[in-house]
Write a structure and sequence with these properties.
The chain is mostly helical. Helix content is 84%, strand content 0%. The radius of gyration is 38 Å and the shape is rod-shaped.
Length: 140
Amino acid sequence: MAHPRGLPQSKEALLKSYTTRLKDDVKSMLENFEEIVKLAKGESDTQLSKMTQSEQDTYEMHVRAANIVRAGESLMKLVSDIKQYLILNDFPSVNEAITQNSKLFRTKQAECDQKLMSLRDDMAADLYDLEEEYYTSIYK
């Protein structure tokens, strides 16, 4: 089933999933980074002691840093998936190569046909001459 852009439904869904994954990963990286910056500035209004808050902030920074790494790895996997998709679905260039080869082979075929017809005509003329010579020969 084709969509307006000419993509089958499965490809359309795949491309949408790539877009969603990209947006989600970038959003995750940005949000986690912003939170780390806030934690580093020490902007939290809390009843906890400075030492306890500092430990908690450090722990949260580690978790958020791990989230950023996870999102980065997810983006690298996405790039790999998109490259694979492009390799497997690069039909325009494959079609272009096939078309060029077809043209080349049609040209070669036309040349061969021309040579064969020329050879046929030469042989027919030679055979006609031989036949003429045979029938008019005194050595029959």
